[in-house]
DNA sequence: AGTGATATACACCGATCGGTTTCCTTTCGT
DNA sequence: ACGAAAGGAAACCGATCGGTGTATATCACT
């Protein structure tokens, strides 16, 4: 019994779309997606209006897991600084995986040049939420300019994930953490 | 007389490949490339072995201009810090253009998941050279850890260009410059 | 057992992909 | 003025693209 056997065809499609579009890019064919999901093309078009819609749905479905991964395990006892650093610690740990190819949402935004694409809209929303999370932490931590600090943090986040995903940088020596620490200190965040 | 009329067919192809693959992504068809260049497909395959080879050549041809754009206009009188900040000033100024879509070399690395692709190799080389340039400046500027600082700077560079290119961030208020300044200060670079 | 919904397999659509070939015109050296 | 060579237009190749139509099989429910 394969691991996908207990999932509905729709969920298997979303799973395959997320996995293959992340590994091979958004230009992956629907034929390959359906083969991977073990679902006929005909069924796919009953669940989704188009390939674009399925891609957007697959990105959206992964948002809760993505958020949970970046959230601090014990947010109550942790300081704002610890919660911010946790995000980059997770990024650094994830980046060592052989099949890490960078932040999937940033990749989608880069690959789909069209900002009106439904998947681009989902990706942009995720990025805005991350920035807003950082901003709230910066405010709680007493940063001098919370908005600026938050934008700096997403800059580092996306730069680190893109470079690690592209294979031109390694984060496992704490590069992101060190960079963020310097920025937190400079912003006067406790 | 169009602006391309005085260029050789080969140069027109390289120009069209650079422009269209930057605007539409590397998946742009050779039919469109040849139409844009005003060159027959047959001629194109006499100049280049494949679409991949032409793409790599088009990226490579733009390297000198890219370098010149980031180089300080008066490198002798400028300090290492000024030379570094000049790079990010140029990035911020370029990013306001309506047809700015991020660093083309990073985009190619993200879009072509295959690191063995000839265009990926060119792009990786460009990124390595930028990091090396930063490292040399960091050393000259007396940074505590020149290698670390250089990696932080390319992190910010790629993060800023990717986010600005994706349309999720604006750099025209000096975001990159402010971030880099904080990192230079933290590294003890004069 | 019968029925309607759901899923599959598979041929098919026009369009485009990267790449090749054929034919014809233009250009250039002599 | 002539012949070779280069270049352009377009047909053509097999493959794949996103998407549909059709006929068959499987399933739950009554």
What descriptive keywords fit this protein?
homodimer, Tetracycline Repressor, domain 2, elongated, DNA-binding
Offer a concise description of the structure:
Chain A has 190 residues and is mainly α.
Walk me through what this model shows.
The structure is a homodimer of 190-residue chains. In chain A, 68% of the residues lie in helices and 0% in strands. By secondary structure, chain A is an all-alpha fold. The first copy, chain A, has a single domain, classed as Tetracycline Repressor, domain 2 (Orthogonal Bundle), CATH 1.10.357. The mean pLDDT of chain A is 95. At the A-B interface, α7, α8, α9 and α10 of A face α7, α8, α9 and α10 of B. The first copy, chain A, binds a DNA duplex (30 and 30 nucleotides) through α3. Chains A, B: This is TetR family transcriptional regulator. Chains A, B: Keywords: DNA-binding, Transcription, Transcription regulation. Chains A, B: GO terms for molecular function: DNA binding.
């Amino acid at each position: 019994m394969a691991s996908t056997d207990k999932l509905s065809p729709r969920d298997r499609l979303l799973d395959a779309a997320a996995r293959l579009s992340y590994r091979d890019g958004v230009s992956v064919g629907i034929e390959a997606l359906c083969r991977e999901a073990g679902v006929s093309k005909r069924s796919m078009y009953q669940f989704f209006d188009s390939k674009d819609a399925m891609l957007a749905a697959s990105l959206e479905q992964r948002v809760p897991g993505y958020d949970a991964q970046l959230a601090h395990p014990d947010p109550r006892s942790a300081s704002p600084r610890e919660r911010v650093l946790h995000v980059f610690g997770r990024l650094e740990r994830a980046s060592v995986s052989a099949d890490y190819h960078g932040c999937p949402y940033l990749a989608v935004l880069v690959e789909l040049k069209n900002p009106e694409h439904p998947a681009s809209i989902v990706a942009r929303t995720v990025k805005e939420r991350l920035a807003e999370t950082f901003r709230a932490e910066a405010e709680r931590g007493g940063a001098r300019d919370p908005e600026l600090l938050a934008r700096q943090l997403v800059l580092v986040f996306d730069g680190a994930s893109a470079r690690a995903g592209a294979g031109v940088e390694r984060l496992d020596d704490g590069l992101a953490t060190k960079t963020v620490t310097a920025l937190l200190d400079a912003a006067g965040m406790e």
